[in-house]
Amino acid sequence: MLKAILGTLCLPLAALAGAATLTIPSADGPLTIDGIINEEIWQRAAVLPVKPPEFGAPFPGAGEIRVILRGDYLCFSARIPETGRVVARSTGRDPVWWREDVVAFTVAFKAFSTTFTVTMNPLGAYSAGYAYRLAPMQAPEQSRPVLAQAMLGPDGWCAEAAIPLANIGAIGFIYAERIRAPRPDAPELRWNWPALN
What we know:
The protein has 197 residues and is mainly beta. The chain contains 2 helices and 10 strands. The longest helix has 6 residues, at 2-7. The protein starts with a helix and ends with a strand.
């Protein structure tokens, strides 16, 4: 039932984006969560236009974030351009995050005001967990692990994440954010989808 609902997931964003909706496509085909975004399936994914699109020179562009439903997973990819060196210190699973370059994917969980977030950096470190806006509750047990990986390249970095549908709800809220850590010559920069009001 959950898979059928999420197969044609529409995201009502009336409060955030003036009644905009996004339909996330469902696709079959090979997909390896390895941080290399070269599978054909990503060409069919919905593009999340992160805002603001450009801060202007000398800063890098916002990049591109995509989302698609494949099997029992909601899959995200991010292609992040970088004009200089990346800032990344953390490694492994569930690190203590420093101020570093990250991309975060957030989806609504089944309970009211509860979200599930996957945060990743260019070195492949990631954390996945629930956040509560009201009183904390016991975290639900994850049915299957989240799959996440990142890959550094000459012009930036890429990230992929797959969240089991059983870990999220059919409420229809998705939020994506890219954070570029401050540099000696540049402030912290943030790009969001949907755009902040």
